[in-house]
Amino acid sequence: MPHEMSIAAPAALLTAEGALPAANMPLDQSRAGEATVTVERADGARLAEIESDWRDLVARTCEPNVFMAPAMLRSAERHCASGGIVTLLAWQRGSDRNKLIGIWAFAVAAPAQSPLPCKVLCAPAVPHGYLGTPVLDEAFATETLGAILDFIAGDRSLPKIIALDPVAADGRAMNALGRVLRARGTAPYAVAVGERPVLQSDLEVKQYFERALSSASRKKLRQHRRRLEETGALAVMRVDTPDSVVKAFDEFLALEAAGWKGRRGSALACAPADAQFAKDMVAALARRGEAAIYALSLAGKPISMQVVLRSGAIAYTWKTAYDETYADFSPGMLLLEEYTKAFLTDKTIARVDSCAYDTSSFMAAWSERQAIAQVWIDARRGGTLAFVTLSRLQRAYLRLRAAAKDLHRAGRRLWKR
User: Fold this and answer.
1) Among residues of the chain, what percentage have pLDDT more than 70?
2) Which of 95, 314, 338, 383 is most buried, judged by most C-beta within 10 A?
3) Structural domains counted in the chain
4) How far apart are CA 212 and CA 160, in angstroms?
């Protein structure tokens, strides 16, 4: 999926050379020397066997990530694994049973938005994935990351450069990864940085919207709602049972394809493999209670829809679509009001990830921000000249690309004058 992030790096995230500095966060509670960690490469059949282990890991992880869920990875492997998906499971050996303490999945592919003629390990591994963070047991984060990197470094069939696009730049997993890499004589290299909106607030609904939206914006939305209600019955619906989610997702695919994404060719339905992956994945997560769809309907017809995924206490607003016939009424914002209310009142949800690559979408109404970055790392101990060269070339290319876009936009503005 095309996306852009800023190349101007804030000092809190990057040095001038692009390396992420050590985060000013507490050390994780890993207990060096106490964990005997083994790593295995898992196929779809193996992933089907570890569902209970996965649920147990999510309860212990420092950062859930639905884009590493076994059900999602299995769907991608069935429908979209042209380059191959590499799923690595880390286990702590026990006297009675082994415990899953980490999962990290990658696609073997060319790096996104890159002219470089090389293959890397890309995370997330799934199409239309928005977070490449590994899922780690809080207690054994550093041991797990070290074992996974050693596995990659020792497997001759795997690329040694890992491209994470994106990760939470200031999250606990990235903090642990940075420490592990420095202990191995290398460092993470951020080729681009940005922010995404998130919803994470203890405010009451009324207070939140008063802070997030201006009084003029709130008034305008009330006017849009009244005008729509004058033309037909306006209703908000949330579906979360497996059958209802499957039916609603078919409606979502049609709604998305009928709009600008369909004309641009980026709607899920425009790529049969992506559509099959998405239908399979959403249905699989719905059976586990981890997918729901919100819809704003007018006279029984959906005019705005939002697909929401879930992992642990984190929800993800994965995909949205609206009927452009009603664009003047801001149906996406009207629906956002409704599911924002639902999220704020749901005490089982700690945070909602917008899955955006920047703050330019309508979800910028959520006033909280998460720092994100495209990060390249080298799995080999000591680092290599090849990694340093390629990561710097990638960052330089993205800078030139961003500058060219800025120049093009400036030229268009002058032409219109």
Assistant:
1) 90
2) 314
3) 2
4) 43
- Residue count of the chain, please give it: 417
Question: Beta strand 120-123 with 161-168: parallel, antiparallel or unpaired?
Answer: parallel
Tell me the per-residue pLDDT of 150-188, one tens digit each, with 9 for 90 and over: 999 999 999 999 999 999 999 999 999 999 999 999 999
What is the phi/psi pair of residue 340, to 5°? -65, -45
d(CA 77, CA 75): 5
In a domain, 355, yes or no: no
pTM: 0.90
Q: Are residues 148 and 61 in the same domain?
A: yes
Tell me if residue 50 falls in helix, strand or coil. coil
Supply the pLDDT for residue 8.
40
What string of DSSP letters covers 284-351?
A: HHHHTT-EEEEEEEETTEEEEEEEEEEETTEEEEEEEEE-GGGGGG-HHHHHHHHHHHHHHH-TT--E
Cα dihedral angle (192, 82, 67, 160), rounded to 10 degrees? -50
Q: Who's near 211: CB < 8 A, 6+ residues apart?
A: 203, 367
Q: What CATH code is carried by the domain that includes residue 294?
A: 3.40.630
In this structure, are 320 and 219 located in the same domain? yes
Range of the domain at 184: 37-195+371-412
Residues 317, 128: Cα–Cα separation, whole Å: 12
Q: Residues 6 or more apart from 155 whose CB is under 8 A from it? A: 41
Take residue 239 and report the two structure tokens written for it. Answer: 């579906």
Is it the case that residue 265 has pLDDT exceeding 50? yes
166 and 212 in a single domain? The answer is no
Give the Cα-Cα-Cα angle 166, 171, 177 (nearest 5 degrees): 80
Q: Which of 319, 349, 379 is a domain's end point?
A: 349
Identify the residue with better confidence: 111 or 144.
Answer: 144
CA distances from 26 to 64, 199, 233, 287, 299 (A): 19, 24, 52, 37, 53
Tokens coding 320: 């949205």
Is the pLDDT at 238 greater than 60? The verdict is yes
Give residue 383's identity as a one-letter amino acid code: G
The reply to whether 252 and 306 lie within a common domain is: yes
> Residues of 119-131 as b/e, b for ≥16 C-beta within 10 angstroms?
bbbbbbbbbbbbb
CA 83/CA 81 separation, integer angstroms: 5
Q: Residue type at 117? A: P
- 245 with 295, same domain: the answer is yes
